[in-house]
Design goal:
Blueprint: H1 2-22, H2 29-37, H3 43-50, H4 53-61, H5 75-81, H6 85-93, H7 108-114, H8 118-127
Protein name: Ankyrin repeat domain-containing protein
Length: about 130
């Protein structure tokens, strides 16, 4: 009798465990989209990192904000960090604010120095 009770209880626990494993987590959509978007690099900054000058020009012409942060950094900081001097010049010509610091508190010049981005540093020296 005891073996039967233990066997039935074990079977019930196994069925419950399998049923719970098949359930999808119940997440709030707003929480999910907020978490996802805070860790994604926007397409404008991706184009800057890749050095795609033509795409950056088109996006600016379409109204892209040259001071909107992505991952806590402005597009100009991305251009300086990845030594994209021509793109940095374009951003400056279109109103990029070089005084905006990253969310970590670093200046655009500091990112260029840390990355040893000599071309970007020359552009920044001329612009400041």
């Amino acid at each position: 009798m005891k073996k039967t009770i233990v066997s039935v209880a074990t079977a019930c626990l196994l069925v419950i465990a399998v049923a719970k494993a098949d359930q999808k987590p119940n997440h709030n959509f707003f929480e999910q989209s907020t978490v996802t978007s805070s860790f994604e690099l926007n397409s404008f900054c991706k184009a800057i990192m890749q050095g795609d000058l033509e795409t950056v020009k088109r996006m600016i012409a379409l109204g892209e904000d040259v001071n909107k942060k992505s991952l806590g950094m402005t597009p100009a900081i991305f251009a300086a960090r990845y030594n994209k001097a021509e793109i940095l010049k374009l951003l400056i010509a279109n109103g990029a604010d070089l005084s905006i610091r990253s969310d970590k508190g670093y200046t655009i010049k500091k990112y260029a120095e840390l990355s040893n981005a000599q071309d970007a540093l020359a552009v920044l020296e001329a612009a400041m």
